[in-house]
Design brief:
three-stranded antiparallel beta sheet; 1 helix; 22% helix; alpha+beta
Length: 87
């Protein structure tokens, strides 16, 4: 062994963790946001950006619980997950 460091070795760059997370929802019928905006049926991204996935998931659980309590027999939005914000 020569005692030299092998500098020819290639390293793979480490991907930086996401700086923000947003929730994604499937809305089955027209729905109204808390700010009064009405969204139609389809796939929609949440407006808020959260610092971690866990915080985004917790917020989604709170929103889902509020929707279930308020909507009664109306179809409620389905949470599709928290996704990293890429920008």
């Amino acid at each position: 062994m020569s005692g030299q460091i092998d500098l020819d070795r290639k390293t793979t760059p480490v991907k930086e963790p996401a700086k923000g997370w947003r929730n994604k929802w499937r809305v089955p019928a027209n729905a109204q946001h808390a700010d009064g905006q009405i969204v139609g049926p389809g796939i929609h991204w949440g407006k808020e950006v959260f610092p971690t996935r866990e915080v985004a998931e917790h917020a989604a659980n709170l929103i889902a619980a509020d929707n279930a309590a308020e909507c009664g027999h109306y179809p409620t939005p389905e949470w599709l997950g928290a996704f990293p914000v890429t920008s």
